[in-house]
Amino acid sequence: MRNPPEIPAAFVRQMEHWLGAEARDLVAALSAKPWRGLRYAAIARPRGELPPSLAPFLSGGVPWAADGFYLAPGPSLGYTVLHQAGAFYLQDPSAMAVAVALDPQPGERILDLCAAPGGKTTHVALMAARRGGAQLVANDVHRDRVLALAENVERVGAPCAITNESPAALADAWPQAFDAIVVDAPCSGEGMFRKDPAVRAEWRPDAPERFQVLQKDILRHALTMLRPGGRLVYSTCTLNPLENEQVVLWLLDHYPVALEPLPDWPEWRPARSDWAADREEVGLAKRLWPHVGRGEGHFVARFRLLDPVATSPRRRSKAATPSTDKAWDAWLASLVAEVPPAWRKTVARKSVVFADALGDLAVSSLRVLRPGPPIAERKGQVFVPHHAASRLLPPGGFRATVEIDEETAIRYLAGEPLALPAGHDHEATFCAVAHEGFHLGFAKRAPGRLNNLYPRGLRSTRIESLAALAAEVDSSSYT
Ligand SMILES: C[S@@+](CC[C@H](N)C(=O)[O-])C[C@H]1O[C@@H](n2cnc3c(N)ncnc32)[C@H](O)[C@@H]1O
């Protein structure tokens, strides 16, 4: 096996310039093991908890994220039943600071502008769901990455719309449309050096300068989409002040924005005003340094927009109309115990019926990957539940549910049919399949068995049992 690439010497020189002797501690920390974390993620059960079967893998809570936990050194949990079921999201503990900084409020309309693969989107969605819900749009400019975003959003049941656009195109369509926007910007990724050797290999000495140009361009457009009084969270996973304090300074100098205080966690250090023309308020932004706290490198700042940046009136699209299709209404009633309010307005595109998450946002000129969570597909004259819909409702939300043990769930995720459980006398054609109260997908009733509707593209024969993985946990400390 090849050794991971060294920490780039030019990076070390740059950080010595900024940090002086402290750079040594930083470089030493970047050569140690990364901190790993996971976050409770099942949005349909926003007040739920991680099941006890995950306890052997956890080593304490992340102080700033109510749903976040450190993972003990050991195996990856990506190929487990509970991960596939969207019970949790694997996330760097420092990255959990971003949704916390945004602090989503009930009923807000929120845009995550650089959202793929979805760590912050799904965290914002969970926090919002806990507070009664928000309207969420997640965007990413890259076509391949936006598909990974959709997969993660669907896995955890985040009820958001997804677009695949440039910030400029969105800004043109959605002036002053949002109460809050997250710009988790593309960056030189220095904070990820110990977690991801590929980032070290790709880093170039001029990366901070180049990314700063891109970050300003994205922020320029983001601000025009924010209503006056709205909040903008700017974050990066890099360390260089060119992409952090100096971008903050540029925003303060060029736009009617004010920085807001963030929570005062000891592991969140004030950003350095001395790297931003000694502007004291820059210290309200926070740095999560890899050599200070238990997580990778992150930067986060929250701004309040004081005056509008764009004044053109908001364009409205025709609101989605509630379905009046009787066949659809009857089918839905046969699937769910009670139709959730968010499913009353639907949008049909090709053969898929989506819950409408765009409301009056104009989308005619935009690439919309999904206008909201998919609920069903029309196949000929009949509807079939969309796999993603299984994640949208809590236990008991579907008329029929079959709870299966882990061994059976592993076979279900590989695509095998299920035996009809003894006593399963429900007549519903479709039933949800659940493990430990988390919905995995759907099955269709057939004589003597349940046919597996878990999508072919998601099926996997690599899923491992938690008991087997627990034996690999290293209970010694990180360092
Ligand atoms: C740091 S990553 C976002 C991580 C994501 N927020 C999460 O938590 O999973 C930055 C994202 O910005 C996107 N991006 C790159 N260039 C962009 C641009 N010009 N405009 C908008 N987004 C861009 C990338 O595709 C990438 O997914």
Question: Could you characterize what this model shows?
Answer:
InterPro entries: Methyltr_RsmF_N, MeTrfase_RsmB-F_NOP2_cat, MeTrfase_RsmB-F_NOP2_dom, Nol1_Nop2_Fmu_2, RCMT, SAM-dependent_MTases_sf. This is RNA methyltransferase. GO terms for molecular function: methyltransferase activity. Keywords: Cytoplasm, Methyltransferase, RNA-binding, S-adenosyl-L-methionine, Transferase. S-adenosyl-L-methionine binds at residues 114-120, 140, 184. The protein has 479 residues and is α+β, with helices and mostly antiparallel strands. The protein has a domain at 9-305: Rossmann fold. It has 13 helices and 23 strands. The strands form four sheets. Strands 5, 6, 7, 8, 9, 10, 11, 12, 13 and 16 form a ten-stranded mixed beta sheet that branches. A five-stranded mixed beta sheet has the order 19-21-22-23-20. A four-stranded antiparallel beta sheet has the order 2-3-1-4, covered by helices on one side. A hairpin with a 2-residue loop joins strand 17 and strand 18 (382-385). The chain starts with 8 loop residues before the first helix and ends in a 9-residue tail after the last helix. The model has no long low-confidence stretch (mean pLDDT 94). S-adenosylmethionine binds next to helix 5 and helix 9.
Structural class: alpha+beta
The counted number of beta strands is 23
| Number of helical stretches of at least 4 residues | 13
Strand content: 15-25%
How large is the radius of gyration?
A: 23 Å
Global outline = globular
Helical residue percent band: 25-40%
